[in-house]
Amino acid sequence: MSHNDNQNTSALSHIELMASMMCANYGHLEDEVRALESAGIDSFHIDIMDGRYVPNYAMSLNDMSYIRSATQKPLDVHLMVEHPNNTVELFIKNLKKGDTIYIHPEAEYHPSTTLQKIINAGLIPGIAINPGTSVETVYEMLRIIKKVLVMSVNPGNAAQMYLPYVGEKIKKLLTYREEMDFEVYWDGACSAERIKTFAPMGVKGFVLGTTLLFGHDRSYADTLSSIREMIR
Question: Distance between CA atoms of 116 and 91, rounded to whole angstroms?
Answer without folding.
Answer: 14
